[in-house]
Amino acid sequence: MLGNNSCGLHSLVYGSVRDHILEIDAILSDGSEVTFKEMTSEEFNRKCEGDPAILETRIYRNIRETLSDPVNRKEITDQFPHPATKEKE
Fold first, then answer.
1. 56 Cβ partners below 8 Å, 6+ apart?
2. Which of 12, 56, 19, 11 has its CA nearest to residue 2?
């Protein structure tokens, strides 16, 4: 459900998975256990500065790199949530 943001039949009433998840305890493909949750900018930067041999560090660096690109940021802002679901002004 988390991987594809499943929501099912009642999504308009109850929202989708992303509307209800506060944090995720996960096991990454290298077998390491991590928790993904809201964090401060300082916490995020510390995660990015970790050992590049650690998969979690590489994930955070990839997020930072992706969101540092102005084209990507504009696309995210323009498309999520999908314009068809945004409230009319």
1. 28, 32, 34, 47, 50
2. 19
Separation between Cα atoms, residue 50 and residue 60, nearest integer Å: 9
Q: Where does the pLDDT of residue 9 fall: very low under 50, low under 70, confident under 90, or very high at 90 and above?
A: confident
| Measured distance CA(38)–CA(27) in Å, rounded | 18
Which stretches of 10-53 are DSSP H helices? Answer: 11-14, 41-48
So what's the pLDDT on residue 85?
A: 63
User: Would you tell me how many other CB atoms lie within 10 Å of the CB of residue 60?
Assistant: 22
**CA atoms of 64 and 61, how far apart (whole Å):** 5
d(CA 31, CA 87): 42
pTM: 0.73
